[in-house]
Amino acid sequence: MVPDDKLHAHASAAPTPAAKNTPPTWQGACFCGTVRFTVTGEPEAMGYCHCDSCRHWSAGPVNAFTLWKPGALEVTQGAESIGTFHKTPRSERSWCRNCGGHLFTHHPHWNLTDVYAAVIPDFPFRPAVHVNYHETRLPMRDGLPKLHDLPAEMGGSGASVPE
Fold this sequence. Notes:
By secondary structure, the chain is mainly beta.
């Protein structure tokens, strides 16, 4: 039997207590806990991506994303255990070489890093949009906007599709 503290090695407590006017810091980790990191402040966007690439990388029907400015992410342990993969110049995907757990994807063309919502367990994920919904394999009726591809300000059409 695995001790309870090992089962929850990836979990974080509430955000780091902050002084007045100091942004909150959230702790995250890979599946085994070898790689640990923090994100500070608020993400630029949160939502669900339904594109084929994100679905394949996440091994799920949808990817819950949080997009952060790169300076908000700090690897605090295990940087030498991070592997990267570049399927395209638009995404630099990172994972733990020890457990294979996915961590984040840097998108240089947007200067944003997607820290997967699942690896920051206590972060209050509040999705606002579905992107690349025309590729969905898991229709979701949650009342959030569904975009055919991406918002116009991110290089997409900004076109909505029905829920």
